[in-house]
Amino acid sequence: MTRILVTGASGLLGLNFCLKHYRQHDLIGVVKDHLLPGAPFPFQKADLSSPGEIERLIDQVEPELVVNCAAMANVDNCESQPEQTWQINVEFPRQLAKTCVKHGVKLVHLSTDAVFDGLRGNYTETDEPNPRGVYASTKLAGERAVLEALPKALVARVNFYGWSLFGTRSLAEFFYYNLSDRKPVNGFTDVFFCPLETTILSDILMHLANKGLSGLYHVVSSECLSKYEFGRSVAERFGLDSTLIQPISVRDSGLRAVRSPDLRLRSDKLAAVLGEQSPDQAESMDRFYSLYQAGYPQQVRDVARLPL
Predict the structure, then answer these.
(1) Total-model pTM
(2) CATH of the domain at 62
(3) CA distances from 195 to 40, 64, 212, 220, 291 (A)
(4) Closest CA to 95 of 55, 37, 57
(5) pLDDT tier for residue 308 given thresholds of 50, 70 and 90
(6) Domain of 94?
């Protein structure tokens, strides 16, 4: 059993990580705004950007491992709030890594596939990033700040989906809820990614942490697809009408922040550690669907005592 501190415990990945591992480990979540009165694991409310707050938490909790899921991740909001984004995505991870060094704590830090410009795809961990926009730039600066302060940290570049606290945090939920209401939606035919379902991702992250790995890893699915194809896979798995998904180009979307079109990442380094390829899209979508069948979306909302 490992004593784990999880920051960003009300977010999509943070909450799913906590719910997946609290039974096997001594786990404490950290939240800023959204309290979790129904959580089956202990949590603390803290503003980790406040001076001395990180040190106080580490001193109090005495974790063996910190999993940093805290981030400012709304791409369009990041464009309008660059200073706040820098504070959360760069300065906080930097201070967290320094504190982990001081206390001898292992750190897993979550980064993003968006550190690449997406002009060619098929990126490896050794390829030079070229971020586009505030979110991507700060996430790259954050991963570099972490590894500079704590070279033994594990930095995972990820893309993921799952069931979230408010049902609005992942692309899979976007497709599922809109199609369930028979609302037409757009699907980008020219934006490619390699997402993993959050509980699968959580298991892989824990496996990597247990092995004591460090440095950069692309922790993504071994299979990549367009966001339009992803939307169709949600529709098909749940028996929804895929014709409601309109295939469009991201260039015609009117989104404020620029998106990297081809974020297909190579995961050979991860496969070498796992001894096999990471899950493909069918396995990941099957997990998403099986969780739905088991009533997991309501279980997630019960953590904050929210109705479905």
Answers:
(1) 0.96
(2) 3.40.50.720
(3) 27, 28, 24, 6, 17
(4) 55
(5) low
(6) 3-166+194-224+263-286+295-302
